[in-house]
From TrEMBL:
Chain spans, region Disordered: 1-20
Entry keyword annotation includes DNA damage: no
Chain ranges passing through the membrane: 28-52
Protein name per Swiss-Prot or TrEMBL: Peptidase family M23
Origin organism lineage: Bacteria, Bacillati, Actinomycetota, Actinomycetes, Micromonosporales
């Protein structure tokens, strides 16, 4: 039989359905399935599609600490590639202002894991799990920054717009933290990337060995 013959008028020969005998239960099931399908499509559209967009240009991130201060940036075996721990070189560590690296919208402001009990009054208190009090900021173009182990509940809330240099929390030791410090990450899309500050890479790209370096923050008010 030729292809054109197959494309001729089609009759299925299927008898007309006796719709009156269809049970309502199957209709409810179909509606539920349709709702689930719609929810799945919306979920993919809202969560996955934005992550698949090509990344925008790297924002001009600044160190998450006060303008002009020198801080130690470090990592250690078992940390995670690209993760950076910040310790001040001078002055009190507890409660130091933690600043937004760049303008953006807060997407997380809460507790990761558990807080534990490490405070300025009891620095060797029980260790928590995970990041403790933490903040995540969306900078657009799939770029994000994360700030962990804050001392107290973050000073910002989800959905809030923050400016570069705005204080988002205080440095602490909540979560799985050995000593007061700020654990910091920059992410592009799904993955962590090497941290850049003031347009310069930090050089911390692996946790295969301990690394300690010093940098001066240029997270300064505009126009200064
Ligand atoms: Zn860390």
């Amino acid at each position: 039989m030729s292809a054109s013959a197959m494309l001729g008028p089609v009759t299925t020969g299927r008898p007309a359905r006796a719709r009156t005998h269809r049970r309502p239960r199957s209709r409810i099931l179909l509606v539920l399935l349709a709702l689930v399908a719609v929810a799945a499509v919306v979920g993919v559209a809202v969560v996955v599609v934005p992550m698949l967009r090509p990344a925008g240009p790297r924002p001009l991130f600044q160190m998450p600490v006060a303008c002009g201060e020198t801080w130690q940036l470090s990592t250690y075996p078992g940390h995670d590639d690209y993760d950076v721990d910040f310790f001040p070189v001078e002055g009190e560590t507890w409660g130091r202002p933690v600043l937004a690296s760049y303008a953006g919208t807060v997407t997380v402001a809460g507790v990761n894991g558990s807080l534990g009990g490490r405070t300025p009054e009891n620095p060797e208190g029980p260790r928590g799990r995970g990041g403790g009090y933490w903040v995540k900021i969306d900078h657009g173009g799939t770029w994000e920054t994360q700030y962990l182990h804050l001392l107290e509940p973050p000073l910002v809330e989800v959905g809030q717009k923050v400016a570069q240099g705005e204080q988002i929390g205080k440095l602490g030791s909540t979560g799985n933290s050995g000593a007061p410090h700020l654990h910091y990450e920059q992410r592009r899309g799904w993955e962590k990337v090497e941290t850049y500050f003031d347009g310069e890479p930090s050089g911390i790209t692996t946790d295969e060995r301990e690394q300690i370096l010093r940098r001066v923050s240029n997270n300064c008010p505009a126009g200064s």
